[in-house]
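Quick one, tokens below:
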């Protein structure tokens, strides 16, 4: 039988004594639904094209000492031909107490773990909101927040890397 090694403080992966991670509250921060072309567009027989835009708040707001708000935003736009069938914008938030984590684990917890906790509530609220229009519900896809977090880190590294200009280059400003 193989045993997985237990993380130790030397690995930098073990929680330190006094580590706290608590969900204080999950709440719907904002939601709106617009159907600007109703009722006429409801008579259309074409299937709508659905566009989903997702954003995880980069500004994880510090609410108090060791208390943070994490917000996941979504905009769902459904169109039939060139007309908007509906537009849903929603922000789902969570308040988390995070203390005693090693520094290298802090950002991943706020960027991966917290959005992963908040997102299912956002999915349910969007499905409910669209379902209340009389249209079939929209079920947002599952999201791999770890992959999204790593992609964001890579993108930030590319945009923050300094531009090295070889000597003698002719650069206009």
């Amino acid at each position: 039988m193989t045993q997985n090694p237990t993380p130790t403080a030397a690995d930098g992966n073990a929680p330190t004594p006094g580590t706290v991670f608590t969900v204080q509250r999950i709440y719907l921060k904002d939601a709106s639904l617009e159907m600007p072309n109703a009722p006429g567009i409801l008579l259309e027989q074409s299937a709508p094209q659905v566009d989903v835009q997702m954003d995880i708040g980069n500004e994880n707001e510090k609410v108090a000492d060791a208390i943070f708000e994490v917000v996941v935003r979504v905009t769902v736009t459904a169109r039939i031909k060139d007309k908007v069938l509906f537009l849903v914008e929603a922000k789902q938030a969570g308040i988390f107490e995070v203390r005693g984590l090693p520094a290298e684990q802090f950002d991943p917890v706020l960027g991966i773990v917290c959005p992963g906790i908040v997102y299912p509530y956002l999915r349910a609220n969007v499905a409910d909101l669209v379902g209340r229009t009389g249209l079939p519900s929209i079920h947002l896809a599952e999201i791999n927040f770890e992959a999204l977090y790593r992609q964001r880190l890579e993108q930030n590294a590319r945009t923050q890397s300094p531009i090295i200009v070889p000597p003698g280059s002719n650069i206009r400003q």
